[in-house]
Write a structure and sequence with these properties.
With about 100 residues, the protein is mainly beta. It has one helix and six strands, in the order βββββαβ. Strands 1-2-6-3-4-5 form a six-stranded antiparallel beta sheet, with no helix packed on it.
């Protein structure tokens, strides 16, 4: 199964930027591993995209790629049952250049 998610916020920039879309494959079809970017559900913040930095028997430690991003220090250990999927593709928002008057 696949899930299309829209990125909100800057926690994963410059890898994923606000407005980008990411395609995630169901956790039923992969084993989460260190370095994977995953989409997971948080009771407070809703759907979140982060990168796995460490694995434990009971879940994963995650962090964002932006220096001001939340990580497992504030989110805690992410259990497998909260993981929605692994990001397999990014669809960046096309940036249009502002026109310059002639």
């Amino acid at each position: 199964m696949l899930k299309l998610c829209k990125v909100k916020g800057l926690s994963m920039s410059p890898v994923f930027n606000e407005g980008d879309y990411v395609l995630a494959i169901s956790k039923k079809l992969f084993r989460p591993d260190i370095g994977d970017c995953i989409v997971f559900r948080d009771d407070v913040y809703g759907c979140i995209i982060k990168q796995i930095t460490r694995k434990e028997k009971k879940g994963f430690f995650v962090e964002g790629t932006h220096r001001c991003s939340m990580d497992s220090n504030s989110l805690g250990l992410i259990p497998l049952n909260k993981v929605i999927g692994k990001v397999i593709m990014n669809f960046p928002v096309s940036k249009t250049k502002e026109s310059v008057p002639l």
